[in-house]
Fold these 4 entries.
Entry 1:
Amino acid sequence: MISPMATLMLVHGGWGGGWEWRQVAERLAARGHRVHRPTLTGLGERQHLGRPDTDLQSHIADVIAVCDYEDLDRIVLVGQSYGGAVVTGVADAMPERIVQLVYLDAFVPVDGQSVMDLTPAALAERLRQLARDEGDGWRVPIWFTADDMGYPPEVAEWYVPKLCPHPLATLEQRIRLTGAVDRLARTYVRCGREEQSIFTPFAERARAEGWRYAEIPVGHDAHVIAPDEVVSLLDRIATAD
């Protein structure tokens, strides 16, 4: 039996699910990699399991559980958008099993920060208000359109209908870190088309701290807009010395 070239764990962003990584995962598997793309509790095909107390730690536990039950080690851990907060917590909890941490246009919290802390105040309040008005107080409805995100029509047609409300507590809970994650090899991939976005500070921090850095200027959700470009980049990262 031939061993896989690398083991990749792909963690999705807010309002999404593991399903959105399918094209990337299939292409990476075709290149010989072992790939997992879990769906976080309360989202995608697991949205019926969401509860008001589904929080960031719930999502961190989701990913750790897959790693434990699948006996994964030497993992290239990839987080997209909100998923950056999740992979930060996962990596800090089990750094000995992570060989590379990749943030794909993602949040990068430090100890004591929540995703809402890292979101512009006006947008954060808008999300809270939507949860109060339309999400039973604990779910944030989809607040963006295909045009907002720059999805080509063929992407919007299959991607947008599968999005679902996101558990508010996952955005509000402040992460607790030991500092172990700071000792890992990290790569930041800037994916937006605009010069400035809410993710710009994380890209700038990564460059200032000497992380590996790359850009895919096709839009925030590059893994669904340009999967081949994301596959090529992740393949290079996973196989780098």
Entry 2:
Amino acid sequence: MKVHLRSFQCVLFLWLSLFAALAGADAPTVIRMGVPGVGVGNRPVTGGSSASTMHLRGMLEKEFEKEGIRVTWSFLRGAGPAVNEAYANGLVDFSLLGDLPSIIGKAGGLKTRVLAATAIRQNLYLTVPAGSDIRSIDDLKGKKVSLFKGTNNQLAAAKVLEKFGLSERDVRAINMDTATAKAALSTGDIDAAFGGSDYLALRDQGLTRLIYTSKGDDPRFLRHCTFVGSQDFIEKYPEHTLRVVKTLVAAAKWMADQDAHPESAFQLWTRSGVTFSNYKEDWQSASLRLMSSPLVDDYIVSQYNWNIQEAKRFGLIRSTFRFEDWYEPKFLQRALEELGLVDFWKPADKDGKVQG
């Protein structure tokens, strides 16, 4: 009797071990996040979005810690093009990614899906050395201008140049990442640089002047990012994908809750090295509730479809596609439902105006 009982216990143990192994196979051991950029001084922190807020508040780590699933974050100085390379080599599962690099990746055959909006309606700035005689975009012809090629800065800059009757061919366009361009501006090795709010600090130090910002200009010149996932990961781990998107939406909700008093968000983001005052200036008159929206609404859809066509027109991609075929809405829809946030953010129309 004891022998039979012991045999039964051994068989039961083997079955339980097999069941546990099979259950574990349905879960990833690690979730790999890619970030297109670094903070000041190459620090592994960025700010200004629901994705960065999710990182800074450790929200993904808390979501998966009980199961022992690790979350890793790779901050890539090469920005969007470097994230695309990481996707191509199977080294990243999710990322914030700018409109142009994500479009280039998709057009080039990368198997990614857009899951939500994040870091939308970003401003573009044009900076020149403090002693420069350049006063407007009209003065850029023949000048050495830094463009971080392959990023959403490049496409926005191309639109701005065209508005003033110029193109990249009319300037001496030089491909530089943000850190390199900031150093070159400081030493006068370039005449101007297009970029984001990173350049405000140089102006505050008296090293540069701003001669253009997209704030208050044509909303088509704004830059956007979406939250993108690897199609392989999404298909293999749909429930874990949902939990990642839910966490992103929860981070967006935290941002929106700071709308009346955005100081908490700005202070959190200063861990990137960007100053509180620079965030305050960049986000002046902007609603955190609006800017945090994860909705892929008519505005985002129309902006991306237009940017796909613009990328083709400017020779940045060879073939076009429909944004609607790239976007996977079911995870965001379910996340909003489960979090009770279906009506929290109001969608914007194709011109960017919020309905209601």
Entry 3:
Amino acid sequence: MGEPVSNPARHYVSVVVPLYNEEKNVASLLDELLPVLDNFGHQCELLLVNDGSRDQTGPLATELSKRDKRIRVIHLRHNVGQTAAMMAGFDNARGDVIVPIDGDLQNDPADIPRLVEMLDQGFDVVSGWRNHRSDQLILRKIPSWIANAIISRVSGVKLHDYGCTLKAYRRDVLSGVRLYGELHRFVPIFASWQGARITEMTVKHRARENGVSKYGINRVFKVVLDLMLVRFLTKYQTNAMYVFGAVGLVFFAIAFAAALYAVYLKIFNAISLTLTPLPLIAAFGFMTGFMCILLGLIAELLVRTYFESQGSLPYVIGSRVNFDAE
């Protein structure tokens, strides 16, 4: 993660709040957030992203924005999920520091200055850690502990609490990061691809008093599937052939072994090929292996098409020296 170097500076801080059916919380949230921003010592803005709420969250957010010019509201046409709503906030933020926070009052706005101060110690990402969560043990805490341990192990980015929305990012480490599905919890991993220095700090967590939680036990399965995707993107984004090719070779090996054993039984035991499933296994293995190789080739073509058509590069330059003339 690199050695931090203290470098206090004035920032433009963008606080991003995705909201979905939070009409009972949005006014109270602003009552807590605005005094924090008033005494922050940095220029600030507050982006409220209404994620297609079906209650009065949208009109309330618009009405509340009239009380302070720092409050900006983004209304999405329909519900697209927390990840896409957060991405809309990131794309429209003007600050050099971006701090997402939940709109359900379970995060404490008073922790925001502490996160930004940690950035000034030389870090690029400061992740909140709800060390003492006010959630149910069986349905929320234990699955979260297991998921965080697996994610840290697989990704190599060691954090105790990937699910905590409250984090602070330097804007430059989010450049080029595009979020889809429910990948917002993996932003620190994407930032690490850009060479970001990452740390975490404990933050407060409060029990939900109003509204209904948007997450259930099915979130665990989504995390596992998303982790598989992130792992694939981490190691094989530019060489997908290694994945599909390896699987294809496994099926080729199975097909070869089945065919060889079938021939052995025919020659030495006089067992007809039609009396065993081995020829079918061999044919199935060969066809599956062949299809995997073709998928690998198609994936390689898609990767090259993506980078070349979008003008994207498979690397990120941290700095350049003596390029002023160019």
Entry 4:
Amino acid sequence: MLAIIIPYYKLTFFEDTLQSLANQSDKRFAIYIGDDASPESPLELLEKYQGKFEFKYHRFEENLGGISLVQQWERCIAMAIDEEWLMILGDDDSLSPNCIKEFYDSLSEIQAENCNVVRFATVIKDEVNKKISALYTHPRLEKAADFFYRRFTNKTRSSLSEYIFKKTVYQKIGFYNYNLAWYSDDRAWLEFSEFKYIYSINSSYVSFRLSDENISRGNYKIKEKQEVTLQFFKFIVTEHLNQFKRYQQRHFLLYYEQLIYENKKATFSFWLFGFLSFLSQFYFIQSIKFTRRVVIHLRKK
């Protein structure tokens, strides 16, 4: 069975989320709503949906999302009982009516392909510009590394709500606790999938809402996001670079180099790591050019 986890805080669009669950053609799911000490109680709204689907609601007396979104996700997930699959749905996102049906219709194939991570197609509801995006679809089976590279090169998008993942792999690995949970989901799909295949369902979709209350908005905590971006790409290039194709590796190394300069983190150890990384991929000329760039940068400091 599937557990849909909703870390609740904002009431603004929550009814759209609940209505999308009530509209599901297949009700084989349990909903767990973890209220992060919100000043906007959802209880009156939840009364409207009693009997329309199975849900459990718990109000946490301490706000944790303001300190760590990942820890808020974790304590909400802990509400789930014995469901095999998990989905974390934002309190402002919604599902098209056949999402759950399509998941169960695909489950035998998902299991046959040994996939730990499943994703739906998505649309973006942009509340700022009052627009709805085109439908973002994906290959039915795609290596997690290839998907992340497509996301990195702005050829697709990704957010937390459109994914379903096995509870066992979550319990083994967990979400990495980055500040603002920035890149925490990207890292999870790489690690939860074990860098193998992600299974895509393109016949149903999740609506991701982009609003001026959303962490993803472009002008929100830019410095904090930059710091996490550096941490995340350090993780990519130092721990998992060999999971990517050669041209992808080069792109990540060059990007990480720019992050190092922007964050004033250039050191001898960084030069040595970069030099050996380029050299290991037989980028001989690039390794020399890299050395020159580092020297020039250090002289400017």
